[in-house]
Write a structure and sequence with these properties.
Number of helices: 69
Strand order of the largest sheet: 1-2
Pathway: Protein modification; protein ubiquitination
Largest sheet: 2 strands, antiparallel
Number of strands: 4
InterPro entries: ARM-like, ARM-type_fold, LTN1/Rkr1, Ltn1_N
Protein name: E3 ubiquitin-protein ligase listerin
Shape: flat
Domain E3 ubiquitin-protein ligase listerin N-terminal: 84-392
Helix content: 55-70%
Radius of gyration: 47 Å
Family: Belongs to the LTN1 family.
Oligomer: single chain
Amino acid sequence: MGKVYDRSNVITRHLGVAEFIFLQSESTNERPLGKPSSSGRAAELLAREGGVVPGFVGFGSAVTPEPGYVPAVHGAEEIDVLVDADFRLVLRKMSKRDTVTKLKAIQEFGSMCQERDAEEVKGVLPYWPRIYCKISVDHDRRVREATQQAFEQLVLKVRRSLAPFLKSLMGHWLMAQCDTYVPAAGAACLAFAAAFPPNKQPEALSFCRDEILNVLQDTLLKETADTLSDPQCVPEEERETKFIRMVTSSLLGVKKLLHLLPDSDRDVLEDRLTQLISPAKFWKYSKHKTPQVRGALFEVVSALCQYTPGLVHKEAARASSAVLLGIDDTDPVVLPPLWEAVLHVVTTIPDCWTHVNARKGFLPKLWALLREGGGGMAKALHPNLMPLVSKLPQQVTEPALDFYTTFFTSLIQGLVAERAVSSPTESAAIVTAVVECMRFSVLQHTEEGEEQRKIQRMLISQQLLPLLESAVRKPSLQNGPLFLLVTEMLISWEKRAGLHGGDGPQDGPDVFKPLLGDFWEGLGLLLVGFVDTEEADEKALEGVATLLQVMRYPDKVTGRKQANKKKSVKICFSEDAESDGTEGGGPDTALEGEPQQEKAVGSLESERLEEVVCQLAQLCLVYVNEKQSERHLVLLALLLRSFHTPRVFTMLMESEGGEQPSAQQPSPPVVDLKNAAMRFLLERVVGWLSEDGRSHSHHLVDMIFSSLHCCSPQETTRILNHITTANAGPETLKSCRDWLKGSVLGERLLGLAEELCNAGRGHSTSSSNENTHSWTLISLVLSQHHNNEPLIGEVYLEKILEKLHATLSETKARSSHEGGMGPLICFICDVASTFYSSVTDCLLLASAEELLLTAFQITAQDHSNTHLSASVLSKLRGVCVAGVQALVQHSGDQLRESGFLCSAAVWAKRQLLTASLDVKSLQVLVSAVQSVVETLTTSPSQDLTLLTHFLSLLTPSQPEWTRIRQALPPQWMKSPLLSGRLRVTCDYPSIDVWKSTLSSRLPAHLCACALLGRVIQTAAVSRTDQQRADRSLYSELKYTVSELLYAVQWCVEMDVGLATVSQYNSLLTDWGLSGSLPGLVPVQDLLETLYTRSVAEGGLWSLCLERFLQTDTVATGATSNAIRKLYGDPGSWFPVSRAKLSTFQVLCPFMTREERRSVSSLATTGVINWQDNDDVCGCLALLLCCLQEHSPVQVEVLQAVLASMMEWRNSREDWFLFSSDLSKVSAEQLILTVEMMRFLSWLVTSSPSVLGGSQWDFLLCCMLAWLEVR
């Protein structure tokens, strides 16, 4: 017997090994070996031959002027072997004339270069240059683009192996980078960058410089349309188009070569470049009929002037004539490079004017061009005028007075050109050029002398003032940069005249002071002419006000200052006077709200400006008093808006003869009658306001505020108090109510809110603190209500809330940095909290609920993304609490579908189901939702209706539970399967699953269980006084608790050493969910739910049921009768399913001896009668479960079962899976074999006495056969 037991132990161990092999089996596929290639030797062969291929064999039968491409050298058989057959085929297709065939072949070639081995691709290199040089200049632009893209793939694959072939490639490669078709040129540049980094590109070009120049020179000087294309095969138009494109590319290639080559190489190439530019054919391109060719030539001229000035001096006559006599070319393609060349020529060639007749050839063309406004190209042309004028020698500009008169007259006349009138940008370019050239001209004529004074007077009286007169009449010029540019010029002159103290040098004050005097005298007469008429043009009066306003506050001209600083040419008039780059620049000055005693920094200092304003204001007052002119009253209001100075108000009151206030208009005792502004307000403005029939009074309101600017804050407050107490009747209050709800105040408050939000983005805390009073005002208008109505219009109330919501929403998008938004968010939180706490039914506004939802979402997101400080997060949580409290107090038990609670629950559930959360993010989300639940449960006047609805929306549906449960990683199966605690209930995952590791992100099922468990626990604890009545907080409670137990069991079965599982398990333990939450559901209800899930699905549900039955609560509360109610009669286990089998394995220990005996008897019958039974595996597994629980079974029964198995060995050998490929075996077949192994193992260990000699032989043979299975 001892030998028997020893043998039984060995057999048992081997059976266990066989069973483990079966459970862990997985198929493996052999990967086919790749085919090695050695075709790179073709490149080596050509390198050994010195890059010379003796002959070529053509691909096609057609006669073409181009040679073939596949080499026919000695040892052609070797070449045929070395060049891959697929590459030979695609190269043949690339030589075809059909464009579609050629294009597809090139694309295929690029793909092959990308996919094939480098050695295979290198075999193509000896034949690529000739192919590339042909197709890179193909007529079809798609072919050229595809060629460069394929070339890039070739370069990326062969890398340094391209070096021996560079000289034959580089000329056409450089031309391709200058292709007139931009996508093709861009692709060629990408290929060049892939081959050479930026620091190596000059070296590569230097290495091939001679070959490059050969290609470019041949194209420009030797080739024609007929030599580049076959006249017999290619149409004339196509030949001409190709020739023009190649000439253009060659010219641009020369420019690019000069730009990239080192200085030393340029000197070496001087002789070669001389050969290029000395022929007359080269300079004839300046008169070519195609604009692209002309433009490319001028670009070459600019490059030659910049990089090889000595070479240009040799060709000075041709260069000067070609460029300076061609300035009348206004083609959009030609003009920009032409004028760049003009500036380079006049700078590089000092004697250029000796080669052209400036008075007959150059200047007449310039005057005509200027009078036409640059032919619609002023934006490109006019920035070059001032640099050009600065380079004109005296021999060209003499006599200076006539020259400058004609120049500025022609230049200003361009403003009436058709294109300038219709295009603001064209007009702005001309105006900018006028002022720039005028500033330069004045600086060039600052010497004493009658001739100099004539030029100065001409510039002021004949040019600048008429231009301003035209601008005052035309709104299009008013909206341009003219007024601002003129103001900056005047400030510059004042600095030079010494009127700004120490702000600038006093260069020739005797020149600039008279110049300024002439300007102000002429401007005064000009503006008086517009105003001193009863039928004054309203548009002109607006222009007068605009001009003076810009002169008063140049830094506040609708944000145009910086926009108009952007120019094509950088201009510096003087190194000392304007070294800071901006004239009259300085801190911004407020247009309104600043004390008048403080002068606006950067504005004109001359008192002459104020004198002009006083003169105009007096005229306006005369026409208002005598003619009741409304247009003059409007102009007076506009003047006072910008010039609310004591001097202006004093002048206005003195013009009235110094009359004291009449008895009908007594001034309040709080007003200082010595204050001219207050006298003007009470004696004039109030009287104008009281006049009947006045339809528009907004300009009078402007006058009131202009007057208050000259009053101290204390005086202003006393005056407003006096006005309020003096007009407090019912009608006044009604008017105030209408004003509060009107559009004017609403729009201003909305603008204030937008301004505060914009100012708070990215600013420092100090700047935000300065807006505290403004935020207080916003909070006041939102939170204060009268008779349950908001103070302002409801539409504006909602718009302000929408603005706050939009600003707060940016916090979610700014994930990487908080910047300066912390103080801004705090202000918004304070306003929102006050609003929610003060306003009844505040959440009936959609914008209020959206704001609350956004605050909730920010608090529920991972704080490492938003980087918000603890104080800011605390304020956001306070907003959520205040909003939910308002919702509970005023909404009753109704839950709107679009309301906050619904939206918050749906959003939180979406986060659980779709977002990848780690443990920290889950804690933050749970904390936010828990805060909402606590607020709902702690309200004294609220029942659990809202809470029940909220939890229902938060809970996943049954299909969602099933989906996220099935998404749990299946590694949990390993331990229970190998330990025998779980029968096979599903198909095994692949072996890759067992090798994979869990990420740091939690599965959605675990997140949902943790959040729901926590909030349900919170709700239950908060309602302890109603615990029994509210035990079932909502109908889904037992299912939610079941899912929580499922999640806990998943963690138990997983490896506790995994960080993610360990952290999650610790979290549940700290919250006490697995222990306390099941107590909220009756034991019998939870037991039935777990049993139903186990019988339906098996697997982990069966283990959950087992663990639940082993808890103290269930062990004491669940009797055998309660468990028996779950399954009823023992016959209910048949027919056996996988899920039933797992459930039976769990419940078997809790069954009575009689129940187990009944089940084992039925199972034995099923095994013995296997011919009539389709579920032999299930019956065998049930029998084994009963045997493992020590159910009494007769020896004859065991022998009968064993005899049946031996019979299977003869008649159903496929059940044993001997010599089978386990990767192709179904799960059902595998399970039956495993159950037979388990039964035989139990028989050997627990009842070996029933085994005879034949049974031992059967068992040993099976064991050995199973061990050989792979």
